[in-house]
Amino acid sequence: MPRFDDEDFRNNNDRRDRTVPTEENYYSYSPVDLNFNSREQNVVRDNQLRKGINPCDIEPTQNNFTPPPPPVQRFQSETIGDFAPPAPQRQREPRKSGDEKKPKKHFHLIKSKKKRITTIILAVILALILIVVGTISGIMGRITYNDKKENTFVSASELESSALVKNILLLGVDARAGENANETRSDTMMLVSIDMKHRSIKLTSFLRDTWVYIPTLGYNQRLNAACSSGGYEGVVDAIEYNFGIDIDGYAVVDFEMFKVLVDSLGGVEVDVTEAEAKEVTNHPNRYGDVVLESGKYKLSGEQALAYCRIRKIDTDFVRTERQRTVMSAILNDAKHSGPFTLLNMAYKSAPYIETDLTKGELRSLVISAVPCLGNEIKQAKVPFEGTWEYATISGNSVISINVDNNKQKLVDYIYNDVLE
After folding, report:
1. Would you say 305 and 255 are in contact if contact means Cβ atoms under 8 Å apart?
2. Positive or negative torsion for Cα 68, 73, 78, 84
3. HSE (CB half, 13 Å, CA atoms) of 4?
4. Rounded mean pLDDT of 282-302?
């Protein structure tokens, strides 16, 4: 059924007038030509005010508006911000007393951590110092100390001395079984000079057959006879009396100490000649069944001791040179050893040392010697070249010397660092 009276499903709706009014026909509008170059000049089209018309195409008239002049050309570096007024800066109020800024939490933690690390480091250093001091005190307690005796044969004003030079007489005594070492002849006499002025350590050997005046005897005799007549102090007195240098103290070492020192360092390197090797190897009773081979290699403590005691194949000059060679090797190896090795070496060798120096003097000597160890160890011997000759006196083969010349040369060498 139709809903409206004029509704008829059978009617043909295509017969209706569906023409779009002109004012509503937007689709019939011609498109805008965007190609401005293709347009005719000085042509005003219809509907020029409509959307899509270029105002530049309008032909100018007398009533047209004249555009303003272009702006002044700016420099390339100029910006708008260059002409803007500066932004006002905020004034900081002064901090009131007591109103301190609290540190941030993480900064406080870092500071506390650094403080703990510093405390640990200081504690470790303090512990090491206490260990070293305790070890040194233990080493000092193993040394035998004698009372110092003044030289009554020569005054201190007559002796050459310096606050920057310390002279220690090192005595190696050849004491056999059952003999008192203090009453035997000194087998080795070596002056160890710590020259802080020239930063050097000097070793000076005194030949035992040197014919000089022995104060404790009252007449001339071999230098090594001073030990049997006046003890260790008698050797110090004889050297001071004849050569005019001040000796701060002595240190007597048992030959066993050489073995301990060398073995503590793992041996010392020495160049052994064929004659020296044969002398030691072929005389086991004299050198204690020690075998040496020729060549340059490391000697053990037993071998180094036998090497130092060789005396039959050459002169006393060469013998003392062998002793200085071993001592120099020990000192050079000690310079490159660690502190614990040195402490162990000192601890083991301390029982073999006897001295008239106090514990404080020994500590001072060690401190003074440290800066000097970096330089080469110097060596000399008394008598000096050109100041001696072999002689036979009272049936004894001895070394006769010019005492005054040797005295002057020794003073120049030790205190002025001059060796001719």
Report:
1. yes
2. negative
3. 4
4. 91
